[in-house]
Amino acid sequence: MITKQEVENAQKAWGQGVVRIGTLQSDKEQCKTFTQNFVDEQYDFDTKEVLFKPTKAGVQQFRINKEGAISYFIGSNSKYDEDQGFALQPWIHVRFENAAIILEENRALAMGNYFFTDTNNVETKVEYTFGYHKKPNGKLKIDVHHSSLPFNVGESV
Question: Which residue from 61, 89, 141, 145 has the least number of CB within 10 angstroms?
Answer without folding.
Answer: 61
